[in-house]
Amino acid sequence: MEKKLALETLSFVLLIVAFPVVSLGSSHGHRVVWILGLVALVLGGLLPIWTRFMNHAADKPRDVGMEYDDRTS
Q1: What are the pLDDT digits (tens) for 18-54?
Q2: Host domain of residue 35
Q3: pTM higher than the cut 0.70
Q4: Could you give the residue ranges of the DSSP H alpha helices within the chain?
Q5: How many domains does the chain have?
Q6: Is residue 25 within 8 Å of residue 32, measured between CB atoms?
Q7: Can you state the angle between helices 2-28 and 31-52, rounded to 10 degrees?
């Protein structure tokens, strides 16, 4: 489960970074920067889809219910 969370966090960071990088690359005419932003955008969009198809057989199940809730009330 930690691997999936790490990949989805990386995906979120890539998506946040991609938009300013694409904007800077296109507004200043730097083709390499624009392509890097586009690659970050595509990877950020594909990583959550890829994590859906990962093997989660080794993940241990979590208990569900009010008595197992970790949040403070």
Answers
A1: 999 999 999 998 999 999 999 999 999 999 999 888 8
A2: 2-55
A3: yes
A4: 2-28, 31-52
A5: 1
A6: yes
A7: 160
